[in-house]
Amino acid sequence: MFTLTQLCPTPLENARQLHLSLTAEERCRRRLHCHSDEGESLYLKLPRGITLQPGDRLRDEDATVIVTVHAKPEPTLKVMASTPLDLLRAAYHLGNRHVPLEIHTDYLRLGADSVVQTMLEQRGLTVTFEVAPFCPERGAYHAH
Asked: What UniProt keywords apply to this chain's record, in alphabetical order?
């Protein structure tokens, strides 16, 4: 088992390279037992305040392994609107409910939630279930 304790801003040439696919919720956890995409047993033991993003690299204390983080496909809702203003209003209502949200110019993505889906559909938005990588916006006061 490799214990990953810190971010690695630059690649290390001699370290073993692994990949780790995590859901949006898992990327917020400081402590997590998991397996790399290659099947290696991993333990995340990260400092407070770290929210992992796709492309982040983690390393163990000895720098024997570097693990690149990826967004794991998960159940999501893709929200589309007939006008940009309707999409903006949807983002407002979702933000007002503190719903983690991935924002694009022509659609929004959020974790699958039937109650929120119903609310959005009642507002006339097109909501589609998709299994896709989910990368919600980080908070305005987040520092990485």
From this structure: Chaperone, Cytoplasm, Nickel, Nickel insertion
